[in-house]
Amino acid sequence: MPDHTASEEDAPAPELPVTLDMPGKVADYLRTTGMEPAQRAVLDQGATVRRGQGYTLRVSAVPVVHRQLLARCPLLDGGQGLPAVPAQRKDRRE
Questions:
Q1: Which residue did the predictor score with more confidence, 75 or 7?
Q2: Residue 56's CB: how many other CB atoms inside 10 A?
Q3: Does the structure show a pLDDT above 70 at 65?
Q4: How many CB atoms lie within 10 A of CB 69?
Q5: Which stretches within 47-85 are classed as H helix?
Q6: Contact indicator for 40, 79 with CB cutoff of 8 Å
């Protein structure tokens, strides 16, 4: 058995999926952009939670996919010299 544990220690630990509540405006924006199949699958499998006037999309994925989705939202943060509307800044922070 010692031979088996040595090879397992060298392997990187798999990233566990995390759950994120994404504002509906962000989810709608991401659906209009060209996404990779893994990112689109995450959005398609998300659970819609109604919140007042809008909704929240609860998605579960590994942190790498969450970072990729977040990287696609620079316009919501007022990037590229554009001012951000306060609600859009909140969407980006969440």
A1: 75
A2: 20
A3: yes
A4: 22
A5: 63-71
A6: no
Identity (one letter) of the amino acid at 70?
Answer: L
91, amino acid identity: D
* Contact in structure between 76 and 26 (CB atoms under 8 Å): yes
Three-state secondary-structure class, residue 17? coil
Q: What is the pTM of this model?
A: 0.60
Residue from 27, 34, 58 nearest 45 by CA: 58
Per-residue pLDDT, 8: 53
**Structure token digits, residue 43:** 């959005």
Q: Six-digit token pair at 91? A: 């969407």
Amino acid at 90: K
